[in-house]
From TrEMBL:
Name the record gives this protein: EFMT2 methyltransferase
InterPro entries: Efm4/METTL10 (IPR026635), Methyltranfer_dom (IPR025714), SAM-dependent_MTases_sf (IPR029063)
Keyword Nucleus included in the entry's annotation: yes
GO CC, alphabetical: cytoplasm
Molecular function as annotated in GO: protein-lysine N-methyltransferase activity
Reaction equation(s) it catalyzes: L-lysyl-[protein] + 3 S-adenosyl-L-methionine = N(6),N(6),N(6)-trimethyl-L-lysyl-[protein] + 3 S-adenosyl-L-homocysteine + 3 H(+)
Methyltransferase domain span: 48-178
Gene name of the record: Eef1akmt2
Keyword terms: Cytoplasm, Methyltransferase, Nucleus, S-adenosyl-L-methionine, Transferase
Length: 203
């Protein structure tokens, strides 16, 4: 539930303030590297607007900024997560990262026009919501269509869904471009789950 995520980020926030360490990076480093490599391979212009959906501690955005990307936005449902990512952003001196508290299932009107959307675990978390998970997944796909430009790219890393299931979930308005190679185990989710990483293009 959102409140338990908030509690987790509260703990990370205290830990960061005490140690200057950004704490656990969900899904580990390799998924960030994979996303950045793909963007570089595609020669995605560095000023393309990028949205990190469920930014958590904001570390992915910091890595993108270090790789030269200049138009970065991170949203999270959890105010504590946004506080934490603001602290991480300050420590790294990355003033070109925009951070805002947003519920992606009811995004504010100005959240639009992105060329790249990245999701690492947020769709998973929404999928696990016991309260109308199917409806929430459909709303997620609608929100994604609204914020992502036509021809824009959506990079999703999931611990809960297979490639086939994700193709089914995102068939309305998206086509798959490629599957990215992933390690076989995901320690963020249940041990032994494999990680799926896909790139979709908005039709």
């Amino acid at each position: 539930s959102p409140s338990s995520w908030d509690a987790a980020y509260e703990r990370e926030l205290r830990f960061f303030q005490d140690t200057g360490d950004a704490g656990e990076i969900w899904f580990g480093e390799e998924s960030m590297v994979r996303v950045i490599r793909w963007l570089e391979k595609q020669k995605v212009p560095h000023d393309s607007p990028v949205l990190d959906i469920g930014t958590g501690n904001g570390v992915l955005l910091v890595e993108l900024a270090k790789s030269g990307y200049t138009n970065l936005t991170g949203i999270d449902y959890s105010p504590s997560a946004i506080k934490l990512s603001e602290k991480v952003r300050e420590k790294e001196g990355m003033s070109n990262i925009k951070l805002q508290v947003e519920d992606f299932l009811a995004p504010s009107a100005d959240l639009s026009g992105f060329q790249i959307c990245i999701d690492k675990g947020t769709f998973d978390a929404i999928s696990l919501n016991p309260d109308n998970a199917v409806g929430k997944r459909k709303q997620y796909v609608r929100s994604l269509r609204n914020v992502l430009k036509p021809e824009g790219f959506f990079l999703i890393t999931s611990c809960n869904w297979t490639k086939e299931e994700l193709l089914e979930e995102f068939r309305e308005g998206f086509e798959i471009l490629e599957e990215l190679p992933t390690p076989k185990f995901c320690f963020g989710g249940r041990i032994g789950n494999s990680v799926t990483a896909l790139v979709f293009q908005r039709k």
